[in-house]
């Protein structure tokens, strides 16, 4: 029976991407419908129960700065928080939160369920409704038809998903959950190019059967590491993680099962992530290593179950279990559930514009793992931008396109659109050219202007960030105008801070500085921290800002719509095909396409300049 209700935005899929997309579009004033197989499992943490980490923490801070919900949900479910990489420079400091898996989903369900203008439907999308070649709604497995002006697809790992454990396999999106069948085939029939990727998850262990005394205990930071601008007044009880290692006995048992591995048998055709391989893949690729790190991570406060990070596997259950029992601390372990691999369909994002709208089918957006990414954070960042841009399109506004010089989210989407992923894409700090400017600590400050334009955050929030920026400038000015006595001589306070042995704490405690400066530093710790970083890294920041300026000139150089790339014989054949396929919007985007050389960019610039001559 057809559902006659018409929505502004329809979101298919209730994972991390879908929840961000639906929340954003609804809060921007669009009547939104979120369709998911199970309303009680929104934003399920399919793999490890953690948010953030190296580079991923930057994404979550940006999501929060732009008005997304992942940071809020994380802060209310965190049971251990840490700032990673503190021994290195601030560009790569990354917050990470170990979460209570059950609480995270419950809080997300509450947030989504209490969002005005957002309806939930428990069903599955199996086809698109097209009118004049444009997306105009969806068909569901129950036989319904729902009409909408914009459609956002967030299928996760469910599209034609198959899970593998040894010789056994089953069509599923996650263990004990049905796959999403039909929609992926329809998209391919409409002309979209499809690939097959693979990911996996470790076994789950009974904590009562683990000897933690022989493992290395890892506690979180004493001071909370919050992701959101509005954290809870109190955090949940904090619990430790534990570190142990595999050994040669472990590896011997794993090797004994390789002849029954779906990965090594070739039954799994999809490409898996190089940076997060299964344990059986590790022992083959790194055969010279006699041990690998394994992290025991708690699933929550109300369960004894543990996640064993680093032991992802699709080997037969009995091989997994025997290998686990050789690991120090796991000799008597009970395995609640074996690890498994999941193979699923993805549609490379080079078929999308930078707004994440499909270039072949208007009004259709794709976000999350179906675009070839891995990880909750990468999915959420895409979902947020898809929801924002769908809403802006309905309001007659230009899409928000974050630049590589503005945000890790911009790097993520730019990489996805301009490069065909060879494996599930994961964000790293090394992917960002301007990472000293794109720190996790300054996400709210550097994205303030964009956040105002989007409108998901309130004026109070924006005013507080603007005040923080003003205080930082005041502190910088005062530091540069303050002199102190050092070894009987006068020294400029700002120049003193450039020395590695001095910081603001030492400056305020051991030197006679004006009371006004000391007070403003003590009352505005975040602004003071940013001021200190700017002073200490002034030379590096200046060089990077010069690089950004050159980069922005390329990004501002727009390409005439309908430019005939195939007609320019001076292009290399590879560049001609690549440019015509992606149809970049700017000279900068063109320069990052595979096969486009510096000489091709020069040729393109000449042709564009000719067209602009009156």
Which descriptors would you attach to this protein?
single chain; 614 residues; alpha+beta; FAD/NAD(P)-binding domain; Elongation Factor Tu (Ef-tu), domain 3; Arc Repressor Mutant, subunit A; 4 domains; nine-stranded antiparallel beta sheet; seven-stranded mixed beta sheet; 22 helices; 21 strands; 19% strand; globular
Q: How far apart, in Å, are the first and last alpha carbons?
A: 59 Å
Largest sheet: 9 strands, antiparallel
Integer-rounded radius of gyration: 26 Å
- Extract low-pLDDT stretches: none
Q: CATH homologous superfamily of the largest domain, by name?
A: FAD/NAD(P)-binding domain
The overall strand count is 21
Q: Which quaternary structure do these chains form?
A: single chain
- Helix/sheet category: alpha+beta
CATH architecture of the largest domain: 3-Layer(bba) Sandwich
Q: Count of DSSP helices?
A: 22
Would you tell me the overall average pLDDT?
93
Q: Give me the CATH fold name of the largest domain.
A: FAD/NAD(P)-binding domain
Helix content: 25-40%
Strand content: 15-25%
Work out the count of structural domains.
4
What's the CATH class label of the largest domain? Alpha Beta
Shape: globular
What can you see in these coordinates?
With about 625 residues, the protein is α+β, with helices and mostly antiparallel strands. The protein is about 35% helix and about 20% strand. It folds into four domains: about 5-200 and about 345-430, FAD/NAD(P)-binding domain, CATH 3.50.50; about 205-340, Beta Barrel (Elongation Factor Tu (Ef-tu), domain 3), CATH 2.40.30; about 460-540, tRNA uridine 5-carboxymethylaminomethyl modification enzyme MnmG/GidA (Arc Repressor Mutant, subunit A); about 555-610, DNA polymerase, domain 1 (Orthogonal Bundle). It contains 22 helices and 21 strands. Strand 7 (about 125-130) and strand 8 form a beta hairpin. The longest helix has 22 residues, at about 460-480.
